[in-house]
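Bug #77: duplicate submission created two jobs. Keeping one. Sequence:
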Amino acid sequence: MTEKTLIKRSNEAVKKEVSTYNELYQDSTSIDKRKDQYQTLVTNYYSLATDFYEYGWGQSFHFANRFRGETLEESIQRHESYLGLRMQLKPGDKVLDIGCGVGGPLRRIANLSGAHITGVTISQYQIQRAKTIGVPANCQFIQGDFMQLPFEDNTFDHVYVIEAACHAPEKAKCFAEVFRVLKPGGSFVGYDWCVTDKYDKQNRDHLEIKRLIEEGDGLPDLKSTDELVTDLKSVGFTVEESRIIPEGDIPWYQPFVGGDSFFSLASFRTSNIGRWFTRNMVWLMERTKFAAQGSMGTLEILEKAALGLTRGGQTGIFTPYFFFIGRKS
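Kept job's structure:
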């Protein structure tokens, strides 16, 4: 990853986005409001969080199961490559990546397969970052909403998603759009964030973990693995496979707790001590006006994410990689 300045945006823009974002999580009755205003919710979240994601995670904003002797970066590369293999991509295939972020997975899968991949994200800021990083000759980035995809019916040979459908206010509507733009016989493959069968909505600790994940990650309402499969089937997909990816030797949430045997700057930045260092650095930058006012507010949101995700992983009530393959007949 090419190093970049964390914050380059105006004080007023950042402060307004933080305030608007936090208002959508003020009480438990705001789920419907978050669903109604999902575009504002998700756009603001990624306008605020993308720089910090790149700083701590690189260009691929997702988790991966990880095995002994494997670095975090290697596990992420393998995780992305697996999707390409399961889609059985070949050169010339037209592929859609919904919720593409700044394009890390897209570039890797395109390079491996030779397919032409279109990345869609609702965030104009991410589009700017993706184009700044670089657009391969067989790829393109388009700002768009995966609830209303800007493509004709039967356009793509395959569609994939990596930990992004969880932002949809209604997954069935998102999946219906994917079904519409997918050619007959094409596959829809992905990983998504879900609560597992261990989640108990009567358990206060579980409810608090779910709230932290939603509030820290720009999610309207985190759903279960069973609900995701039901939504796929409801719009016409034949679900050929659905499962939680088996855990490796190293927990997927390990970057948040530290202790990585492979030291890297990225692993330090995501660890407890690294996040403490970043908070103090950004506090100083904000006080001295090198960072926009509101940057600390963004970090507070992301710290909720780290706490909720860690607890969700440790209790087993949450998975970031529920894997599925849907086929359009």
